[in-house]
Write a structure and sequence with these properties.
Elements: H1 12-15, H2 59-66, H3 91-97, H4 100-105, H5 108-134, H6 159-191, E1 207-208, H7 213-222, E2 226-232, E3 235-240, H8 245-253, E4 262-270, E5 279-287, E6 292-300, E7 306-307, H9 316-327, E8 331-332
Parallel strand pairs: 3-6, 7-8
Antiparallel strand pairs: 1-2, 2-3, 4-5, 5-6
Amino acid sequence: MTDEPNKPPDDAAGDTPERTDARPGAPRTDDKSPSPGDEVERAGTLPPPPDAGGPRPTPESQAALTGKAPSGSSVAGTTVPAASVGADETVGSVSAGKSEATTSAETPEQKKARLIAEHKAKLAAKAAAAAEGAGTEVNKDVPGGASPAVGDPTQSPSQSDLEKAAKIAEAKARAAAAKEAGAAAAGAAAGAPKAPVKKKDEGPKPVDASDNPLVRRLRERLGDGLLGAETFLNQLSIRVERAHNVETCRALRDDAETPFDYLSDVTCVHWPENFDAPFEIVYNLYSINGNERVRVKVNADAEGGVESMTGVWPAANWMEREVFDLYGVQFQNHPDLRRLLLPPDWEGHPLRKDFPLEFMENN
């Protein structure tokens, strides 16, 4: 938008020299003159303006002050930046700072370009001062930290964001403390001497029982048929020849001091590495009156087997059938030696150590 052509200001008459042809006491003819007959005699004349003796302002200097180009120029009516004047400066001081010759020598276009350049320089100086003020260090002791830049919503954290950041920092501190404690404990454990390894105590071992009273009585009766006797965990075991097993069991059953009148069990142990006698028949006897136990062990093979004890203890009938069924040991003179647990057509004896573990189809 363009301004209207400048018109002479109302107070332009005050800038021009006052007319001197007015006679004192002559009646005024302007529109503000008093009515005839009201003139004041000897009113005197107004004092001259303070700058009456100085140079009169030119259209160019007036345009610099008002920010508008002088009338009559090619850029008349165009607004230009006005020269800023401080509160303590006067128009005369601004005019005195510029050379009268330079001002009169510039064309209106050059003056306009110069004023625009000065205005841009002032704006740049203000922007630099503002940037320098924004770059000053903010007090870091303010609670919550320094305020973010105004106008940047991404730099304005909410209360929930601050709480989340505080919780994250606390969790990191706890993790770091736990890590340091673990490292310290590991270092202390590595530096501490290891406790000596305690050797395992040797387990109980069998002890020779040749001096046992029962063993001495059996030896007097059997002689060399008694192969040996030992005690293990206060339990007496006697090993005899296969040919003397029935005689040994009768002697124990009929013993005067501790009669072993109860056959509690008949079992078997398979020793595949003993080719001559891979099976060991074990008779567990118990004395009800003496409250004592004894084991009688007899070595045997599968084909020859051993003599049946059904004539000594009738309860040996099914016990020997079970050993025959699961181990395949023959018992001579048994009244009814046949399988007890498995069907009659079952092949093999499952409690032998050489029996295959995989599934086998039964014919």
